[in-house]
């Protein structure tokens, strides 16, 4: 069948999707980082971005492995995920001539490297020492700013080397937070569908499928995820990684970030440093699922099975803190349409939701 040139000229959509090219997950696979770098034919000069705790957990071993294989590795020790710290990584990479970066650490170290890698136009490998959220594999970075958290476009890791033995030695609270973050995909997808129907927002069923697979897998295995076992890390890490990849397919954080994330961001603004991001998203998902008229008890039960917070007290907050965040959440990202709508919740509505879901007493 011939297609006329006039018809052909009417269609001009295009978009690229970038995925990690190599994902290694399992016991003792940290030693394969050299082989990954060799396979990519990286130049012999690179940088390791890490922090004090994470360098001791795995960064030092990575440096020794790489240098034994003939690589020259400069170590950059950093802190919180701020744009000032990412600028320092960029400056250091220029000074040392680094041609690739190995991000060894938790979410902040990986997010900082994503930003720096994109600016430098050099590849990086994600080597998580913990799994507090699904940013291990995504092309989005959660950065701190004076105006609150910012979700920034960033570099997708060229590879992921996730050693379950190393991750199992990190505090279990971090893994529980990562699981809660992925469970909250359930309400993020409902919000995205709402935006598609009410605002004609672009939607990806492929991204939805991966996001839902991740959340449902964590929920299905929630009774078996607990601290002190490497098997729990093995079960949880695959859906956590896939959840991050769903963002690459969508070209945004939509499949993993909705009203529950707006609630979490509002808490970060009002009460910074009180609870972990994934913990807050999990509690937010309970309440947002209630607003969607979905099975909020299923969400709550899964979080309890894992040992993640399900109420204000467990987040280290009081009742009014939760109500404050609920009433402010819709103002955090005005462009992101969710179940909260443009008006949001007033204090009476917010209190009713929080009490109905047992988030407050």
Describe this entry's structure for a reader.
The protein has 361 residues and is an alpha/beta fold. The chain folds into two domains: 22-170, Rossmann fold, CATH 3.40.50; 173-356, Up-down Bundle (Dehydroquinate synthase-like, alpha domain), CATH 1.20.1090.10. Helix content is 52%, strand content 12%. It has helices spanning 5-10, 33-39, 52-68, 83-96, 107-120, 164-168, 172-183, 185-199, 205-220, 230-250, 259-270, 277-291, 296-306, 312-315, 319-328, 347-356; strands spanning 22-26, 45-50, 72-77, 101-105, 124-128, 140-145, 148-153, 159-163. The strands form two sheets. A six-stranded parallel sheet has the order 1-8-5-4-2-3. A two-stranded antiparallel ribbon has the order 6-7. Helix 4 (83-96) packs across helix 5, helix 7 (172-183) packs parallel to helix 10 (230-250) and helix 9 (205-220) packs antiparallel against helix 10. The longest helix is centred in the middle third of the chain and has 21 residues, at 230-250. The protein is globular, with a radius of gyration of 21 Å. The model has no long low-confidence stretch (mean pLDDT 94).
Number of strands: 8
Instruction: State the helicity in percent bands.
Output: 40-55%
Q: What is the overall shape?
A: globular
Instruction: Please report the number of helical segments.
Output: 16
Mean pLDDT: 94
CATH topology of the largest domain: Dehydroquinate synthase-like, alpha domain
CATH class of the largest domain: Mainly Alpha
Key words describing this protein structure:
about 350 residues, alpha/beta, Rossmann fold, Dehydroquinate synthase-like, alpha domain, 2 domains, 6-stranded parallel sheet, about 50% helix
């Amino acid at each position: 069948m011939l297609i006329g040139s006039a018809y052909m000229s009417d269609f001009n959509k295009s978009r690229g999707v970038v995925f990690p090219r190599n994902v290694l997950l399992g016991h003792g696979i940290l030693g394969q980082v050299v082989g990954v770098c060799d396979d990519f034919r990286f130049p012999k000069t690179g940088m390791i971005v890490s922090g004090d705790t994470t360098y001791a957990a795995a960064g030092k071993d990575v440096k020794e492995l790489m240098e034994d294989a003939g690589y020259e590795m400069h170590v950059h020790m950093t802190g919180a995920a701020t744009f000032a710290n990412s600028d320092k990584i960029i400056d250091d990479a220029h000074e040392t001539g680094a041609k690739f970066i190995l991000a060894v650490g938790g979410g902040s170290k990986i997010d900082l490297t994503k930003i720096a890698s994109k600016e430098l136009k050099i590849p990086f490998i994600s080597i998580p020492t913990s799994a507090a959220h699904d940013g291990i594999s995504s092309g989005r970075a959660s950065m701190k700013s004076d105006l609150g958290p910012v979700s920034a476009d960033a570099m997708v890791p060229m590879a992921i080397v996730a050693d379950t033995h190393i991750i199992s030695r990190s505090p279990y609270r971090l893994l529980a937070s990562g699981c809660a973050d992925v469970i909250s995909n359930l309400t993020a997808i409902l919000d995205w569908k709402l935006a598609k129907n009410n605002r004609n927002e672009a939607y990806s069923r492929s991204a939805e499928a991966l996001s839902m697979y991740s959340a449902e897998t964590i929920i299905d295995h929630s009774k078996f995820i607990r601290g002190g076992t490497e098997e729990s890390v093995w079960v949880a890490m695959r859906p956590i990684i896939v959840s991050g990849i769903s963002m690459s397919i969508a070209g945004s954080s939509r499949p993993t970030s909705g009203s529950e994330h707006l609630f979490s961001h509002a808490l970060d603004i009002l009460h910074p440093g009180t609870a972990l991001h994934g913990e807050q998203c999990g509690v937010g998902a309970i309440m947002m699922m209630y607003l969607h008229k979905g099975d909020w008890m299923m969400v709550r039960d899964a979080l309890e099975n894992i040992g993640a917070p399900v109420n204000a007290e467990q987040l280290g907050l009081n009742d009014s803190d939760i109500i404050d965040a609920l009433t402010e959440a819709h103002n955090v990202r005005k462009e992101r349409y969710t179940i909260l709508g443009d008006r949001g919740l007033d204090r009476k509505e917010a209190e009713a939701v929080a009490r109905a879901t047992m988030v407050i007493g």
